[in-house]
C-alpha cells in the first residue's frame, strides 16, 4: 500500500480540522466524549454535580409531570421500576425538570418531593433546572429524553427511552427499551449496542 | 323543475352522496374522513382524506415531527379485501418552540390516502369504513387527542367520478403534495459540515430564497439550526447541521425528505457522494424583497449619492480633490475650460465606479462571494494601493511632478493633457476612495448587489454622481470659483501639508497587509516602498535637469520593480482562518464567528452580539475603538451573559459573505444583537456609540 502513509496523513489532517471545527461545539453532547458537567440544586436543596458521581453509571432523565408521554411511563409504574432496578445495580438515576417557572411541568423543590412521594418515583435525586442550563448543555429536546454517562464520565447513550413514539400506554408492551438495553450492555462489560435513538415526547418547556 | 321533482332529485343525491359524517371535535381540532367521489366501484381506487381543522394557535405534526411531537396516525378497520394506502403528506411548516423546531400543520389540512375496493365488493350496498385517528395537538403544551371516524360509501357498478364538496380540495391537496422530480441529490458530511446538493432542471431559474430541507428521519439533522443556501447553475447546496444519527455506529447513507426550493416542494433522496459542482458557486440567493432590508431603488439612489458626497471628505481622497479644486481656482476666468475639466473628472469618476460595479457583478455571477471592499481582500491589491498612496504623497511633498494636470498650477486648462488629467484624477480619486467606504454607502451597495445588474449599475452611477458633485459644481459655478483664493505660494504649503494624510493612508494599508500576509509581507512591501521612493526621487531629479533620460529610465525600472515585488510572488496566508490578526488589540473577550456556534448559543438561550468587521474597514476600526472596546460594553456583556462573536472579513470568506447577504448587506460593518429568545436579530447602526451598544445589549437581555 504505497499510498497508505499519505492517506493516514490526510486522515490525521482531516481529524485535526474536524477537531478544530468541533471545538466550539462542546455544549452539544457527543457520544464517546465527556458528558457536559453541571452544578444544580436538587429538590432537597443540595447542590449536585456530575463529577460527584464519577466512578458510577449515571442516567439522566428529563421529565415533566404534565407531559402525556411522561405520564405513559409513570402512570403504570414503568419508569419507577426502571429507577428502582437502576438503584439496585448501583446506577445513579437523576430526574431533571428543566421547565421554566410558569411553564408546564415546573416544580418548586417541595412540589417535586410531593410528586416523588405521590408517584413512588425512585430517582437518586430530582434536579430542579428552571433556567434550563443543564437541559441546554445536553441539548435535551423532549420529555422523556434520556442520557447515560459511564463511570469514566463519558456519554454512552442519548435519545429516546424506547422505540414507540406514542403517548398511548398500550405501546409500552412490546417496546424496545433502549435504556434497559444500554444498562444491560454496560453491566455485561459490552459497549452499548444502540448508543443513539430519536428522542420523542413533549418539547422541554424552556 | 317542479318542487316535487326537485325534492326527488335532492333525495336521490342524499342517497348517492356518502352519508355525511359530522366532524368529530377532539378538543383542539375537528377531524373527519372525506372522499373525492360519492361512491366506489368494485376494484376501483378512489382518494379519501383525513381532514383536520385545527384550532387557532395549535398545530399537529408532519411525518417527522421535528424536535418533539408525534406524527398524526390513522388506524383503519376495513371489511375484508378493502385496502388503503399511506398518507400523502402535505408539505409541512416549521414551528419554532423556544430553542426547538417542530414540523407540522395549522389551520385546515387534508391528508389524502388511496382507498381500493375489492373486485368482489357487493354492488348496491353501502360500505362503512372505520378508522381511529390519533393526533398530538400542541400549542405551548401538547395534548394527545383521538377520534373514531367513519366513512360510508355506496358501491356502484360503474367507476365513480370525482364529485361532491371534497373532490376539489382533495385534488388540490394531491397536487400540492411534494413529488419526486427529476432531481439528483448528494450529501457529504465533511469538515465543511453536512452539505446537501440538489441538481436538476426543475430547479433552474427558481428564486431559491427560503429553500429548506425537511428530512423524513428525525435523527439526521439539527432541526433548529439555520440552513444556509448556496445557488448553483443547475441547483442548490444547503448547509445543514448533522444531528446524532451521524454519531451512531452506522451514520446515514441516504437522506430522504422534502426539499422546499423557493415556493416549490420536491421529495428527494440524497445518497452519500461528492457534491456536483453545478449545485454551488453562485452565492446565496437574494433576500426576498418583502424581507431583508426594505430599501427601494429611489432610497438606495439617494443613499448612494449622499455616500458619494461624503467620500469627498475621506482622508485619502480629500488631498487629491483639494489640489484639483485649487488648480481650477487659478483659472476662474476660463469658464469653458473649467467646465470641460469638471465634465472630464465626472467621466473619470463614473467610468471607474461603473467598472468596479461591473467587476463586482461579474465576480458575483461567476460565483465568488464578494462584496464592497472586496478589492482589499487580496494582498497584492492592498500592497499596490499602498504604493499608490505613497506615490501620491511623494508627489504632494514635491519629490516629483506628474505632468501639468495633477500639478495644475500655471498650466493651460484647455489643453488635451488637462482633460485627460482631469479624467484620471477622477479615476484615481475613486480608486483611493474604495477603502474609505462611508457608512451611508454600505446599505445602498448591499442592496444594489442583491438586485438586478441594471439596478446595481444605477446605484453605482448615483454614487459616482454624488462623489463628483462638489468638483463639478465648482467647475460650473464661476462665482464659486472666483471666491476661492487666488493661487500663490500658499498652494505649495497646502500640497506639502496634504501629503501627510496620504502618508497616513499608506501606513494604514501597510498595517492591513501585515494582518493579511504577516511580517514577511510587510518587509516586502517596505522594501518596495523604499525602492519606489528612490524611483520617485530619480524621476523628480530628471524633471529638474535637462537631458535626464538615463535618470528617467532608471526611475521607470525601479518603479516597475517595486510594483512587481508587491504582486509577485504570491503572499503567504499568514494566519489560519478564524485566527485573530495579531495586530488587533481586543479588550473584549470574544469568539470567532461561525453559523454553527451562533445556532448553538441561541439554542442555549444566550444573547449574542455579532460583529462583522475587517481590518481594512475604517468605519469598523473606528467603531471598535470608540464604541466597542469600552469598559461599559465589557461590563454589559458580562452582566447580561451576552456572547461576543466576531466575524472577520479581512480575508475572503464565503460563509461571512453569505451571512452579510442574508441581512441585505454586501459589506462590513454589520452589528447584530440576538436576544435570548431566538427572535430575529436587531441590526445596530453602522456608526456606533458606547451608549447605543450598551442599550441594545440590555434590551436583548430583557
Question: What's this entry about, in short?
Answer:
The complex is a heterodimer of chains A (206) and B (702). Chain A has a single domain (30-203), classed as 3-Layer(aba) Sandwich (Glutaredoxin).
Describe how the helices and strands are arranged.
The complex is a heterodimer of chains A (206) and B (702).
Chain A: H1 4-22, E1 39-41, E2 47-49, E3 58-62, H2 68-75, H3 78-88, E4 92-97, H4 109-119, E5 125-128, H5 133-138, E6 142-143, E7 146-149, E8 155-159, H6 178-187, E9 202-203
Chain B: H1 3-16, E1 24-25, E2 29-35, E3 45-54, E4 60-66, E5 73-77, E6 83-84, E7 93-97, E8 100-105, E9 108-116, E10 126-138, E11 142-154, H2 167-176, E12 184-190, E13 193-199, E14 212-215, E15 228-232, E16 235-240, E17 254-261, E18 264-272, H3 297-311, H4 318-329, H5 335-365, H6 379-396, H7 416-433, H8 441-449, H9 453-476, H10 478-483, H11 489-544, H12 549-567, E19 591-592, H13 595-603, E20 608-613, H14 618-628, H15 631-640, E21 643-648, H16 654-662, E22 670-674, E23 682-683, H17 690-701
Parallel strand pairs in B: 12-18, 19-21, 20-21
Antiparallel strand pairs in B: 1-2, 2-3, 3-9, 4-8, 5-10, 6-9, 7-8, 10-11, 12-13, 13-16, 14-17, 15-16, 17-18, 20-22, 22-23
Helix pairs in contact in B: 3-8, 3-9, 4-11, 5-7, 5-9, 6-11, 6-12, 8-9, 11-12, 15-17
Report on this model:
The complex is a heterodimer of chains A (206) and B (702). In chain A, a hairpin with a 5-residue loop joins strand 7 and strand 8. In chain A, 32% of the residues lie in helices and 17% in strands. Chain A has 206 residues and is of the alpha/beta class. Chain A has a single domain (30-203), classed as Glutaredoxin. The N and C termini of chain A lie far apart (54 Å). In chain A, the strands form 3 sheets. A 5-stranded mixed sheet of chain A has the order 5-4-3-7-8. The longest helix of chain A is centred in the first third of the chain and has 19 residues, at 4-22. Chain A has helices spanning 4-22, 68-75, 78-88, 109-119, 133-138, 178-187, and strands at 39-41, 47-49, 58-62, 92-97, 125-128, 142-143, 146-149, 155-159, 202-203. Chain A contains 6 helices and 9 strands; from the N terminus they run H-E-E-E-H-H-E-H-E-H-E-E-E-H-E. The model of chain A is unreliable at 1-27 (pLDDT under 50). Chain B has 702 residues and is α+β, with helices and mostly antiparallel strands. Chain B folds into 4 domains: 3-171, Sandwich (Immunoglobulin-like); 180-279, Immunoglobulin-like (Sandwich); 297-567, no CATH class; 591-701, Glutaredoxin (3-Layer(aba) Sandwich), CATH 3.40.30. In chain B, the strands form 5 sheets. Chain B has a 7-stranded mixed sheet with strand order 14-17-18-12-13-16-15, with no helix packed on it. Chain B has a 5-stranded antiparallel sheet with strand order 1-2-3-9-6. In chain B, strands 19-21-20-22-23 form a 5-stranded mixed sheet, sandwiched between helices. In chain B, strand 1 and strand 2 (29-35) form a beta hairpin. Classes of the chains: A alpha/beta (206), B alpha+beta (702). At the A-B interface, helix 1 and strand 9 of A face strand 10, strand 11 and helix 13 of B.
Amino acid at each position: 500500500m504505497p499510498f497508505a502513509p499519505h492517506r493516514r496523513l490526510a486522515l490525521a489532517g482531516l481529524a485535526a480540522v474536524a477537531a478544530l471545527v468541533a471545538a466550539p461545539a462542546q455544549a452539544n453532547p457527543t457520544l464517546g466524549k465527556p458528558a457536559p458537567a453541571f452544578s444544580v440544586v436538587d429538590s432537597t436543596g443540595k447542590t449536585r454535580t456530575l463529577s460527584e458521581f464519577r466512578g458510577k453509571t449515571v442516567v439522566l432523565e428529563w421529565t415533566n409531570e404534565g407531559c402525556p408521554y411522561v405520564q405513559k411511563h409513570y402512570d403504570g409504574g414503568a419508569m419507577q421500576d426502571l429507577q428502582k432496578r437502576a438503584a439496585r445495580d448501583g446506577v445513579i438515576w437523576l430526574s431533571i425538570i428543566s421547565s421554566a417557572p410558569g411553564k408546564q411541568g415546573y416544580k418548586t423543590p417541595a412540589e417535586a418531593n410531593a410528586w416523588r412521594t405521590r408517584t413512588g418515583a425512585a430517582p437518586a435525586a430530582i434536579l430542579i433546572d428552571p433556567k434550563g442550563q443543564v437541559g441546554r448543555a445536553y441539548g435535551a429536546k423532549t420529555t422523556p429524553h434520556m442520557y447515560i454517562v459511564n463511570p469514566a464520565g463519558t456519554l454512552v447513550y442519548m435519545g429516546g427511552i424506547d422505540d414507540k413514539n406514542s403517548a398511548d400506554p398500550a405501546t409500552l408492551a412490546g417496546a424496545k427499551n433502549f435504556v434497559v438495553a444500554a444498562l444491560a450492555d454496560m453491566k455485561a462489560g459490552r459497549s452499548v449496542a444502540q448508543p443513539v435513538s430519536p428522542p420523542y415526547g413533549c418539547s422541554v418547556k424552556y | 323543475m317542479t318542487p316535487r321533482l326537485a325534492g326527488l332529485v335532492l333525495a336521490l343525491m342524499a342517497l348517492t352522496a356518502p352519508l355525511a359524517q359530522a366532524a368529530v371535535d377532539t378538543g383542539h381540532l375537528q377531524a373527519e374522513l372525506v372522499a373525492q367521489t360519492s361512491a366506489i366501484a368494485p376494484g376501483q381506487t378512489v382518494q379519501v382524506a383525513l381532514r383536520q381543522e385545527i384550532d387557532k394557535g395549535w398545530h399537529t405534526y408532519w411525518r417527522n415531527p421535528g424536535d418533539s411531537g408525534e406524527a398524526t396516525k390513522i388506524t383503519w378497520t376495513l371489511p375484508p379485501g378493502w385496502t388503503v394506502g399511506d398518507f400523502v403528506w402535505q408539505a409541512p411548516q416549521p414551528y419554532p418552540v423556544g430553542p426547538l423546531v417542530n414540523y407540522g400543520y395549522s389551520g385546515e389540512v387534508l391528508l389524502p390516502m388511496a382507498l381500493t375496493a375489492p373486485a368482489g365488493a357487493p354492488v348496491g350496498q353501502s360500505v362503512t369504513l372505520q378508522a381511529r385517528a390519533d393526533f398530538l395537538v400542541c400549542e405551548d403544551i401538547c395534548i394527545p387527542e383521538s377520534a373514531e371516524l367513519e366513512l360510508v360509501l355506496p358501491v356502484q357498478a360503474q367507476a365513480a367520478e370525482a364529485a361532491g364538496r371534497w373532490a376539489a380540495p382533495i385534488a388540490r391537496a394531491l397536487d400540492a403534495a411534494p413529488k419526486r422530480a427529476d432531481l439528483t441529490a448528494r450529501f457529504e458530511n465533511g469538515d465543511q459540515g453536512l452539505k446537501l446538493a440538489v441538481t436538476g432542471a426543475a430547479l433552474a431559474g427558481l428564486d431559491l430564497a427560503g429553500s429548506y430541507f425537511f428530512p423524513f428521519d428525525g435523527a439526521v439533522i439539527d432541526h433548529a439550526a439555520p440552513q444556509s443556501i448556496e445557488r448553483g447553475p443547475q441547483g442548490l447546496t444547503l448547509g445543514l447541521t448533522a444531528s446524532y444519527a451521524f454519531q451512531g455506529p452506522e451514520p446515514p447513507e441516504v437522506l430522504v425528505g422534502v426539499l422546499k426550493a423557493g415556493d416549490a416542494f420536491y421529495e428527494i433522496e440524497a445518497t452519500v457522494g461528492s457534491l456536483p459542482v453545478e449545485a454551488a458557486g453562485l452565492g446565496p440567493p437574494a433576500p426576498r424583497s418583502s424581507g431583508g432590508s426594505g430599501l427601494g431603488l429611489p432610497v438606495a439612489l439617494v443613499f448612494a449619492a449622499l455616500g458619494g458626497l461624503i467620500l469627498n471628505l475621506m482622508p485619502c481622497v480629500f488631498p487629491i480633490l483639494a489640489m484639483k479644486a485649487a488648480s481650477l481656482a487659478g483659472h476662474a476666468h476660463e469658464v469653458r475650460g473649467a467646465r470641460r475639466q469638471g465634465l472630464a473628472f465626472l467621466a473619470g469618476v463614473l467610468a471607474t465606479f461603473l467598472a468596479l460595479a461591473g467587476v463586482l457583478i461579474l465576480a458575483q455571477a461567476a460565483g465568488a462571494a464578494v462584496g464592497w471592499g472586496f478589492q482589499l481582500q487580496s494582498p497584492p491589491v492592498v500592497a499596490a494601493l499602498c504604493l499608490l498612496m505613497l506615490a501620491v504623497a511623494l508627489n504632494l511633498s514635491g519629490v516629483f511632478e506628474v505632468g501639468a494636470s495633477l500639478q495644475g498650477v500655471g498650466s493651460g486648462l484647455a489643453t488635451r493633457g488637462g482633460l485627460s488629467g482631469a479624467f484620471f484624477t477622477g479615476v484615481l480619486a475613486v480608486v483611493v476612495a474604495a477603502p474609505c467606504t462611508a457608512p451611508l454607502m454600505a446599505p445602498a451597495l448591499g442592496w444594489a448587489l442583491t438586485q438586478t445588474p441594471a439596478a446595481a449599475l444605477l446605484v453605482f452611477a448615483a454614487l459616482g454622481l454624488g462623489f463628483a458633485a462638489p468638483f463639478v459644481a465648482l467647475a460650473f459655478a464661476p462665482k464659486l470659483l472666483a471666491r476661492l483664493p487666488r493661487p500663490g505660494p500658499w498652494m505649495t504649503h497646502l500640497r506639502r501639508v496634504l501629503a501627510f494624510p496620504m502618508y497616513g493612508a499608506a501606513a494604514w494599508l501597510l498595517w492591513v497587509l501585515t494582518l493579511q500576509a504577516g511580517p514577511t509581507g510587510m518587509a516586502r512591501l517596505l522594501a518596495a516602498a523604499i525602492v519606489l521612493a528612490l524611483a520617485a526621487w530619480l524621476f523628480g531629479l530628471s524633471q529638474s535637469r535637462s537631458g535626464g533620460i538615463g535618470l528617467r529610465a532608471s526611475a521607470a525600472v525601479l518603479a516597475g520593480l517595486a510594483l512587481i515585488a508587491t504582486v509577485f510572488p504570491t503572499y503567504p496566508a499568514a494566519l489560519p482562518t478564524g485566527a485573530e490578526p495579531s495586530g488587533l488589540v481586543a479588550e473584549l473577550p470574544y469568539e470567532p464567528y461561525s453559523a454553527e456556534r451562533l445556532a448553538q448559543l441561541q439554542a442555549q438561550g444566550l444573547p449574542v452580539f455579532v460583529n462583522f468587521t475587517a481590518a481594512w474597514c475604517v468605519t469598523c476600526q473606528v467603531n471598535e475603538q470608540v464604541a466597542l472596546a469600552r469598559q461599559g460594553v465589557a461590563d454589559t456583556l458580562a452582566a447580561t451573559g451576552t456572547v461576543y462573536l466576531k466575524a472577520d472579513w479581512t480575508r475572503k470568506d464565503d460563509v461571512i459573505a453569505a451571512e452579510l447577504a442574508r441581512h441585505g448587506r454586501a459589506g462590513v460593518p454589520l452589528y447584530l444583537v440576538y436576544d435570548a429568545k431566538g427572535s430575529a436579530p436587531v441590526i445596530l447602526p453602522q456608526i456606533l456609540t458606547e451608549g447605543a451598544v450598551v442599550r441594545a445589549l440590555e434590551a436583548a437581555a430583557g
